[in-house]
Design a protein that fits this description.
Number of strands of chain A: 19
CATH class of the largest domain in chain A: Alpha Beta
GO molecular function, one term (chains A, B): succinyl-diaminopimelate desuccinylase activity
Radius of gyration of chain A: 23 Å
Enzyme class (chains A, B): hydrolase
Keywords (chains A, B): Hydrolase, Metal-binding
Helix content of chain A: 25-40%
CATH superfamily of the largest domain in chain A: Zn peptidases
Largest interface: A-B, 47 and 47 residues
Domain Peptidase M20 dimerisation (chains A, B): 168-266
Strand content of chain A: 25-35%
Shape of chain A: elongated
CATH architecture of the largest domain in chain A: 3-Layer(aba) Sandwich
Oligomer: homodimer
Largest sheet of chain A: 8 strands, mixed
Distance between the termini of chain A: 32 Å
Number of helices of chain A: 10
CATH topology of the largest domain in chain A: Aminopeptidase
Structural class of chain A: alpha+beta
EC number (chains A, B): 3.5.1.18
């Protein structure tokens, strides 16, 4: 395991070094120490620490600022350490989600010494666990001035394509009520599980929207993710609960998405249990246009929810851009083509220099 | 708490004494000791013990034998002890299910000294818990000759009406399969919870049979008793399981009932998880006719499943006959009108003497 990170050398080697320092959510301290030590003393960076997060920024008086963010933590190790480089593919826990992106950020922090924009780098903790533990949320509360910028780039894996904005997500519970009875005299009761059939029918018949915003196509979704009910093997149940996850395009606010779900499940008891707003792609801003130009290709919609939405909520355009296939995230086989790491570093260097 | 049971005295006082000896399933030893001590030495009874069950029988060489059965255990005490007699109603845990019936049996054992039929009394344990612990099942395995008879009377509460036979019960699991996917890309998956909507629709539309056998009307039922499914809040689930309880009239064998359920849920993966056959009312047998005549009134169908079915499976007519309203069983308020205890004792004395 590395005890020093060599930021200015090869970003691929740096990715491998980061992968080889285990940093499962909650256990990022050692990796954060290494990152802090490597960034401290890099001219022209101001470095600070927040728990297991490390922040660094330039203060060059540029007219605009770009924040680049990446989480240091990974999902639990699954017999996939240490890293292994094979045929140009780097394998290992966190290779794709998202130590490749972290390596690109660290490499840029050490090598882009005269950036066109002031830069803020945020390496944070606990992204892979429940939202209340998310290090970026803590930084937003404790060090809000560190997150102010004109553009945010979250270096989560995006196959090296600019993913713009992100969809919102909302979870609701649809609850049916009945009357308990012994199943030997079932006609004396009202079966709440039978009653959940109609909401399921509506889910089956539901046709999700596809929404084009700034040329990005967002595909919405409405999926049951849990169903539960039942008292005992001989009792007509008096309650059933269906949990539904809605992914909604960023042209809708959470309030509008909730209103829509209340219409879909009209006549039923609906409770919102979880909600994260989407983020508009913000491709109209000139600074975003510069990034898109540097990356080449066409931006696409981000369908999953990422911390991009936190930055969008702070009022700046925010995109997702990083090496690796997001479909491999959280799998035992996660890996990243090393060429994507180099390409990402080159694109961002072009944009920032 | 009584340390001696006075069998020959008032069956109502005996019921109260039995109620006042707690005997939650598994903890019947003390009550079984008292019952064993009270029966031992009663002429002309042969007494034996099986775990926390007590058995007693006459061997008078009569041409026919009647077995009377009652369980000694109760559901957990629910702030409803000791017993309380108020306005001719005896309250307390087990009053209706089924220490009133036990008291009638004990009183008859001590006072019907010249019965027309040989008699077997079975006081058993663990009826209120899972079937594998049921004391009657153990007796069937260990002391099968003790259960042989020409008629079985299970003294479970029946409002003092002869309840003939009983319905069968079967539990099945209906399972749907799908394909997991992230809900952000829901179209890549197949939602197994959505797929459980169609079986629920069939349950909603199901019209249960009503079957007349020997003048007894059996009302069948088909009820979902449990539903479950779900992987995580952001995953399209790949499995859902619906548990359904079918109560079927005793004109159908378990195999026929299963075949029926497979037709109802045709196209779905169906697994039988639990089954107890019903019992035909057997009202055609002369000895049953004598009991019905002694009781007066018209027999009715037993809708719930009781240990009557175990005796029916041994090849004898079997009925349910005891004091108290079965709808009060297992409730905190369980109680029995004392007149029903006396009436039951009188009817059975008339039949047996």
């Amino acid at each position: 395991m590395a005890d020093t990170l060599h930021l200015a050398a090869d970003p691929v080697e740096l990715t491998a070094a980061l992968v080889d320092v285990p940093s499962v959510s909650g256990d990022e301290a050692h990796l954060a120490d290494l990152v802090e030590r490597a960034l401290t003393g890099q001219t022209p960076l101001e470095v600070t620490r927040s728990g297991n997060a490390v922040l660094a920024r330039t203060n060059l008086g540029r007219p605009s600022r770009v924040v680049l963010a990446g989480h240091l933590d990974t999902v639990p190790i699954n017999d996939n350490l240490p890293s292994r480089l094979e045929n140009g593919i780097l394998h290992g826990c966190g290779a794709v989600d998202m130590k490749g992106g972290d390596a690109v950020m660290l490499h840029l922090a050490a090598t882009v010494l005269e950036p066109r924009h002031d830069l803020t780098f945020v390496f944070y903790d606990c992204e892979e666990v429940e939202a209340v533990r998310n290090g970026l949320g803590r930084i937003e509360r404790d060090l809000p001035e560190w997150l102010k910028a004109d553009l945010a780039i979250v270096c989560e894996p995006s196959n090296g394509v600019i993913e713009a904005g992100c969809q919102g997500t909302m979870r609701i519970e649809v609850r049916t009520k009945g009357v308990r009875a012994h199943t030997a005299r079932g006609w004396m009761g009202v079966n709440a599980i039978h009653a959940i059939g109609e909401p399921l029918r509506r889910l089956e018949a539901y046709e999700p929207r596809q929404v084009d915003i700034d040329g990005c196509l967002y595909r919405e979704g409405l999926q049951a993710v849990k169903v539960g009910g039942g008292v005992a093997g001989n009792v007509v149940p008096d309650e059933a609960v269906l949990t539904v996850n809605h992914r909604f395009a960023p042209d809708r606010t959470p309030a509008q998405a909730e209103q829509h779900l209340r219409e879909v499940f009209e006549g039923y008891d609906v409770t919102v249990t979880d909600m994260s707003p989407g983020a508009l792609p913000g491709l109209g801003a000139p600074i975003t246009g510069e990034l898109v130009a540097a990356a080449g290709g066409t931006p696409v919609a981000k369908l999953g929810w990422t911390d991009v939405a936190r930055f969008a909520a702070l009022g700046m355009p925010a995109v997702n851009y990083g090496p690796g296939d997001p479909l491999l995230a959280h799998t035992q086989q996660e890996n990243v083509p090393v060429q994507q790491i180099r390409d990402c570093a080159d694109v961002l260097r072009r944009f920032l220099s």
